[in-house]
Amino acid sequence: MNLLDDPKAIGAIDITNMSKRISNASSMLEAAMNTEIDLPIAEKPSSVILVGMGGSAIACDLLKDYMDGQFDIPTTVIREPLFPYTLNSKTLLIVNSFSGNTEESIMMFNKGLEAGCPMIAVTSGGRLEQLASTSRTPLIKMNVTGEPRSIVPYHFLLLIRLFAFLNLVDISESDIHSTLQSVGKCIEQYNINTPTKNNLAKQIAIKLENNLPCIYGGGIFKGMTLRWKTQINENAKSMCVNDYIPELFHNTIESVQKYEALNPSLFIIVIEPNKNPKWLQKRYASLKTLLCDYGLQHQFIKSEFSSNLEQIICMMSLSDYTSFYLGILKNVDPASTEVIDTTKKMVS
Question: Are residues 34 and 144 in the same domain?
Fold first, then answer.
């Protein structure tokens, strides 16, 4: 029997039951809708800086993709303890840390206090909650459990609700309702009880098992390419490359030629939104032609959903399940992060 079609064998490897946490995406989205956002009404900021690391930063990237075309103020995601520009009284700093103990996020919170700019902390607790309480900084308390990468659907929707509260983005009840229905269908299609012949996530994992994964995408899936990469890194303990359209046409695509010895070992996943402007459609079509012409292994995955929220959440579900199954195929516990934990101790 195929390993991925044996739930008992999967359970023996998945000792913390990560598959259940992945399948809880619908519940996490509902929890995000029920999380209290009780903040003082403030004037509209002139710019927003979103601070985070790991899964918390990915949620910020996905927020920017979701808001594609809706921005009327500059919004920046940063992952290092340095501001991209001088903050002022109209710069809103949103510090995200699920654990509340991420060193870089704590450093940025303290720098924000020094700068005197408006701030909001988003966390489940830890030092960040303590600092927010002491400094009387507005706080959104996250009320979900799991590792940071597993709660990204929750964190992503919570940030959308925050931006809607601040009148920076619009979101409709119908959009949320249809997304909950769609993600439920995706979980049904990708979960461990659905056999490989009907399970896209299992099929992709098998193709990636003995290859170097490369994830390419554009439009509202720019941040999603990084989500795929980081999930494959953490859940499957595997190297992975990501890039986005149109930038890859100005550098990465030159490496498809026969001079690159790694090419036979690559498997390229191209993720494509459902609706794209003509300039982006042309680039997706050109990429497909090039990959075929140069004989690189690849698979295009086009979203079948309508709204930005549906497309992002459902593509995230596919990335989470695929990386999970790739870890199972490599006989490693998807939840373990031994090297990350060791490295955090080294740099603290």
Answer: yes
Residue 31: give its domain's CATH number: 3.40.50.10490
Task: Count structural domains, the chain.
Answer: 2
In angstroms, the CA 189 to CA 12 distance is 22
40 contact partners, CB below 8 Å, separation of at least 6? 138
What is the tens place of the pLDDT at every residue in 54-66?
A: 999 999 999 999 9
Q: Could you give the dihedral angle defined by the CA atoms of residues 71, 77, 81 and 82, in that order, rounded to the nearest 10 degrees?
A: -50
Could you read off the pLDDT of 137-191 as tens digits, one per residue?
999 999 898 889 999 999 999 999 999 999 898 888 888 999 999 999 999 999 9
Give the tokens for residue 280: 């982006």
Which two structure tokens, joined as six digits, stand for 120? 């909001």
Asked whether residue 346 is domain-assigned, the answer is: no
Asked, for residue 340, whether it belongs to a domain, the answer is: no
Structural domain boundaries enclosing 58: 18-171
Q: Rounded distance, CA 51 to CA 191, Å?
A: 32
* Residue 307 half-sphere exposure toward CB, CA atoms < 13 A: 18
Q: Give whole-number Cα distances, 149 to 25, 111, 170, 294, in Å.
A: 12, 26, 26, 35
* pLDDT tens figures, 275-310: 899 999 999 999 999 999 999 999 999 999 989 999
Q: How many CB atoms lie within 10 A of CB 29?
A: 22
Q: Are residues 304 and 250 both part of a single domain? A: yes
> What SS3 class is residue 308?
helix
Instruction: Locate 282 and state its tokens.
Output: 């042309």
Domain-ending residue, one of 113, 138, 171 = 171
Report the distance separating Cα 183 and Cα 321, nearest Å: 12
